[in-house]
Please model this.
Amino acid sequence: MSAFAPPDYETLARGFRPVFARIAEGAVRREQARELPFEAVGWLREAGFGALRVPQSQGGFGASLPQLFRLLVELAEADSNVSHLFRGHLAFIEGRLNHPDPAAQGFWLAEIAAGKLVGYAMAERTESTGSTAKLTQDGDGRWRLNGKKYYSTGTIFADWIVAAGIEGDTRVSVAVPADAPGVAREDDWDGFGQRLTGSGTTIFDNVEVDPAHILRRFPAPAPAQAKSENSYQKAFLQLILLASLAGIGRAALRDGIAFVRPRTRAFGIQGYSSPRADPLVQRVIGRLASLSYSADSLVDNVAQALEALYQAALAGQADEALFVATEIKAFQAQQIVIDTVLQATTLLFEVGGASATSETRRLDRHWRNARTAASHNPAIFRERAIGDYYLNGTVPDAAWEATAQSAANPGDSLSGGVDAVVI
Model:
């Protein structure tokens, strides 16, 4: 834990807002050309965005969780693809902060403070849930990773890739340099939204793994500590998606205002008119502002709860009930933020006629991006889990854990699926 207090938020944000503004300027162009945001990621790397949570004593900003997520919302307003692609990187840092191994933590936090970025390679396109990527030793005793991953968010932009795999009957997570021999990254993500997150295929073909970079090993069944960390990570990962959604809500409001203000004609009114003075248009903008405020407030509320859990865990005062309660809060926020932002990104088109659908504006990207981000960790499953928790006291993913303990595939041994893996 850093001995320094978190920085003042406005002071922190002022250093990044010019970068966010540059990113926003190119968002429509990148969408039209399907241009991956390498330049935008480079600007953020230079500004130290990747080291927000690294303690000040170790070269970072020492931002609190509420500060991190407020900045993510601002970045998502500029381009939700860019905020989303940092998901694995930020989760990796959080894993280091929550599972302190002094030697390993020192190495990784120094890498991140130096500007290195981390990408995730967890999910697979297989017939059953789990990991088939294998970590084995060759005849010379060197560790090798072989496997194929999909939905590898951020990996194309990364310096390090963290991958889930299996070593015999044990689930493992490992880190390899993105440019290591045998690593291939493909931009084949074909979703209709969040097109520029680099969430494609990552292939590991006999890639050598440094023993020091075998990050974690988890036997089946998972130990209690791993389940608690997993619960924390699920809330954290969900909140990154919700921050992206809240940013999309802000962008819908911003673009709605920008569309209305200069217009001098309106449907059903002869000659010149001022849509900005029309009570119906004002009502639409008022509704967009309210929906955006609601999403922002929920994200901030869960971030505050996650910060309280983080501090309690550092002090050794966090029990399983607190971990689960915080996870449930993230799930509850998910239910409302998704509906709120999807409503806003549809309502946006009520500020004008058919001209609002122009390809030059690409206002449809807001709905497409929101719908795609919302499809991660399907909300309907989380809604059922919330109900089971309140009615029966069932811990989220308890059924998954019970099934996994008897599963033939050791890659299923932790709850919550690939996005929730503890790294």
Notes: Strands lie at 118-121, 134-137, 143-149, 160-167, 170-177, 183-186, 201-209, 214-218.
